[in-house]
Specification:
Blueprint: H1 17-40, H2 44-51, H3 55-62, H4 71-80, H5 89-106
Helix pairs in contact: 1-4, 1-5, 2-3
Amino acid sequence: METQWFDRGWGHLEDDGRQAREMELRSRLLMNLQQGITDKGWNRDHACRWLDLSAARVDALLAGKIGAFSLDDLVALMEQADIHWRVSQQDKALLDHLIREQRAGTGA
């Protein structure tokens, strides 16, 4: 059996390259959001109030349930929590690629 290598962590789970890139970005945002919540010292109740989420949604967030949150959800939550994300060159390339794909798909 031939070994396959993937340049992104989600490539082996997603058949579609665009989905793999989006999952990679969502995972990075989710980890940054989790770290920001930890750094702020928020407990679950505080996170529920600050982020205007149910306890179940905060639990999903803290448990890393990436499928429970869209890319837009994660960006909005980071903004609401005032958590900033330093975009690396790799992240910038990923974002640029996703934006180009989205524009190509919408005809913009």
